[in-house]
Structures are given as structure tokens and as C-alpha cells.
Amino acid sequence: MTMIVSLKNEDLTVKINQIGAELISVKNSHQLEYIWEANPNYWKRHAPILFPMVGRLKNDEYNYDGKTYTMYQHGFARDSKFEIIDSNDTKVIFLLKSNSKTMKIYPFRFELFVTYILVGDTLQIQMLVKNQDEHSMYFSIGAHPGFKVPINPDEESYSDYELVIKPEKNYSLIELNKNGLTTSNQSKFSIDGNPIKISHELFRDDARIFDVEANKQTTFTLKSKKSHHGVSLTAYKNKYFGVWSTYPTKSEFVCIEPWWGIADSENSTGFIRNKNDISRLCCGEEFVANFDITFF
Q: PANTHER family annotated for this entry (predicted)?
């Protein structure tokens, strides 16, 4: 039986699915919903955890130790049933362990802990990877939360929203080709105090991928100019942020995605050891990825 875990305080009520350890609902004290409803006509997910890959592999495959493995976009964690190892009114810890099924497509023994902690109007999320193998493991990890835009359709519209990025500086934008692989083309995007206007055309060429150069912390704030509702996502030491919605289909959500990893290059050799920004853990080591979401 699959469980939905609820966290609650005076400010927010949060629901998380045991499948994928996926955040599926956040409501404020006035019952305003912030998380995308996962309408399958547009995008069937709410806020998946991306592991052990972020983005797409070239030909949906990789090579490790002389063997070729098939793995589809964003990995398998989002469709896996996690254990619930601890929970109370404001905190829950989920665990996914490698097993015979995962070993067939990802030959590494691991533990993935996903922790949610509710503090006031902020949800703190930690993703911790442990290498339980006798040799090094290779992985990427990220999150893909989708937020309702508009949050309050009675007061505002999609075009009332804007994106504010801190710190303000020049960022490189990474381009994806039609197969979802990174290209060598990059452009500079200057954040000089002017917010980015949210429009469906913004996503004409797929996700907008910002290289944030592993800042100590980077904050992407998605907010309405009209109602002043929004979300603010702060990630720590991640290399990339993706901002995405469907196109040309016009849907009412925007994803703000902290990534510790990225899709394959269109020139990828397929060897996982050489993958773009792959993380490597030696035997017994741990990797921690943290981000917070504030709802207002």
C-alpha cells in the first residue's frame, strides 16, 4: 500500500507521496495550492526527484565497465517506492535502496535519503546519497518541482508572473538540442535588477538552463506582480538551475529545478565516468544536496 505523508504547521499543509518521495501538495492557511496538479494532458508529475541522472542520456544509454545500460530521462527514483523511516508532524525521511531491479539498469549499491522539514512558511529538502558499494559510483541528482502559475486564478493570470534571480550577475545559458542534449552553444544572460517576465514563449526552445557556477547559494523567486503570491527556491552549491514549462501547449505551471548534474552532451561518448558534471563517490562516501522552498 502506498502512503501519502502529511506535514502541517500554522502556515502550511504539505503532502508527499511515498512513490518517488514526491511533493504533491502545499497549501497555505487560506487553502491556496502552490504545487502543480499533475494534469496528464499537460505534464503528469508534481515535483519529481531526479536520480541517478538529470536530463537525458544520449540514445538513452550509458557505458560502465564495458557494459551498456539503458536509462531514460531523469532516472528511476521518481517512479520508485521509498521506505518511510521516520516521520512526525513537521518532518519525514524517505529512503530508497538499490535492489535487484535497480542493479539491472544502474550497477551501483546506494542509499538515497530524501528529507522534508517544515519550518514556518519554508519547506527544507535534503537529498543524501550514500555509496554502499566496494567501488566508486557515478550519479547526478536534482529536483523538478512544478508550481501553479497563476497560484490564485481569481486574482491573476500567467502573464502577471516574473522571475527574480539572486545573486544578480551574468549567467551562462546552456542550450539543448531537439533531443534534449546539451550543445556547445552558450549565451550570456545579465541579471541587472530587471526581473524575467514569465511568458509561454520563454520556453519555445525547451528549458532555460542557467549555469550558476556552484554559488554558495542561489535563489530563484517566482512571484506575481498583482497578488504578491509566489515561491522562492534557494539551492546550495548546485551547478545548474532549469526553468521549464510546456511549449507550444500552454499550461499553467512553471518548474524551477535545482540540478547537481545535467543532460548528456550531443557529443557524448556514452562513458558514465566522462559524463557532463557527473558526481563521483568513493566507497563509503556521502553526497548531500540541499534546497529550501518558501511559499508566500
A: APOSPORY-ASSOCIATED PROTEIN C-RELATED, GLUCOSE-6-PHOSPHATE 1-EPIMERASE
Cell of 134: 566496494
Tens digits of residue pLDDT in 91-148: 999 999 999 999 999 999 999 999 999 999 999 999 999 999 999 999 999 999 999 9
Predicted confidence (pLDDT) per residue in 235-282, tens digit: 999 999 999 999 999 999 999 999 999 999 999 999 999 999 999 999
Distance CA 141, CA 75 (A): 9
State the SS3 of 49-93. EEECCCCCCHHHEEEECCEEEECCCCECHHHCECEEEEECCCEEE
**Helix and strand totals (H; E) in the chain:** 1, 24
Interatomic CA distance for residues 229 and 289, integer angstroms: 27
Which residue in this structure is represented by grid cell 550531443? 266
- The answer to whether 243 and 210 have CB atoms below 8 angstroms apart is yes
Locate 157 and state its grid cell: 493570470
Residue 142's closest CA among 73, 204, 190, 201?
Answer: 73
CA-wise closest residue to 214 among 156, 270, 285, 289? 289
Nearest one of 135, 125, 79 to 102, comparing CA atoms: 79
**Would you say 95 and 111 are in contact if contact means Cβ atoms under 8 Å apart?**
yes
Domains assigned to the chain: 4-295 (2.70.98.10)
